[in-house]
Amino acid sequence: EKQESMLELEDIHVYYGNIHALKGISLHVQRGEIVTLIGGNGAGKTTTLRTISGLIHPRMGTIKLEGKRIDMLPPHEVVARGIGHAPEGRRIFPRMSVKENLELGAYLRNDKDGIRADMERVFTLFPRLKERINQKAGTMSGGEQQMLAIARALMARPKVLLLDEPSMGLAPILVEQIFSIIKEINEQGTTILLVEQNALMALSVAHRGYVIETGKIVLADSAKALQENDMVRKSYLGEE
Ligand code: ATP
């Protein structure tokens, strides 16, 4: 019998008014995996993550976390069940300090010692944030804000971390850094669903991947097979 998925989407349909943005998305993430969802502009990557997080509700289809449906729940209950979301465009609270942003990430928890331990853990992952603990988040560089968005999502101690374009707008050296941290977070036990336009980097850290085009999954395979796939190489890896 097949192992129960950590996260499973089945035939998800999402509309924005009359726009049919997701046209029957099915995908699964096993416990311990990094799975990447790659695709071009407007393919439906962000919409998929927002639907998993409960920010948008699907018109049709089911989403299960450890076998239990979450697709009807409001966002705060989805967080409570164990989904952490580091959204695109960072969306940290710019006028609050790094520390306050991190504390907000843990707002559903009341285990003070656990929160303190997790704050130390994210500072180990992101030493820059510790150096800037009292700085207003909005005054930090793009890369630091991106790190803060991921760190804040980790403060909820999620079972599954959703990452939306963590490499967006970052200098190449920071892209390398962010991806190596993503790998480390996964090795410490967090299951990850990673949305990226940077297919090259995403496939280099992921175990498996899906390619999404205009709201549909068009390819699903191991990361290695996708790296070698002609269509992926032409469309997403910038090869002729
Ligand atoms: P990008 O990386 O450019 O954000 P994406 O793959 O994340 O692309 P989505 O943002 O999920 O794509 O968008 C999927 C489709 O839904 C697109 O056609 C987009 O124009 C449309 N869409 C997204 N958000 C809205 C919205 N709030 N209202 C109407 N249409 C939307």
TrEMBL record:
<keyword id="KW-0813">Transport</keyword>
<keyword id="KW-0067">ATP-binding</keyword>
<feature type="domain" description="ABC transporter">
    <location>
        <begin position="7"/>
        <end position="239"/>
    </location>
</feature>
<dbReference type="InterPro" id="IPR027417">
    <property type="entry name" value="P-loop_NTPase"/>
</dbReference>
<dbReference type="InterPro" id="IPR052156">
    <property type="entry name" value="BCAA_Transport_ATP-bd_LivF"/>
</dbReference>
<protein>
    <submittedName>
        <fullName>ABC transporter related protein</fullName>
    </submittedName>
</protein>
<dbReference type="GO" id="GO:0015658">
    <property type="term" value="F:branched-chain amino acid transmembrane transporter activity"/>
</dbReference>
<dbReference type="GO" id="GO:0015807">
    <property type="term" value="P:L-amino acid transport"/>
</dbReference>
<dbReference type="InterPro" id="IPR003593">
    <property type="entry name" value="AAA+_ATPase"/>
</dbReference>
<dbReference type="GO" id="GO:0005524">
    <property type="term" value="F:ATP binding"/>
</dbReference>
<dbReference type="InterPro" id="IPR017871">
    <property type="entry name" value="ABC_transporter-like_CS"/>
</dbReference>
<dbReference type="GO" id="GO:0016887">
    <property type="term" value="F:ATP hydrolysis activity"/>
</dbReference>
<comment type="similarity">
    <text>Belongs to the ABC transporter superfamily.</text>
</comment>
<dbReference type="Pfam" id="PF00005">
    <property type="entry name" value="ABC_tran"/>
</dbReference>
<keyword id="KW-0547">Nucleotide-binding</keyword>
<dbReference type="InterPro" id="IPR003439">
    <property type="entry name" value="ABC_transporter-like_ATP-bd"/>
</dbReference>
<keyword id="KW-0029">Amino-acid transport</keyword>
<dbReference type="InterPro" id="IPR030660">
    <property type="entry name" value="ABC_branched_ATPase_LivF/BraG"/>
</dbReference>
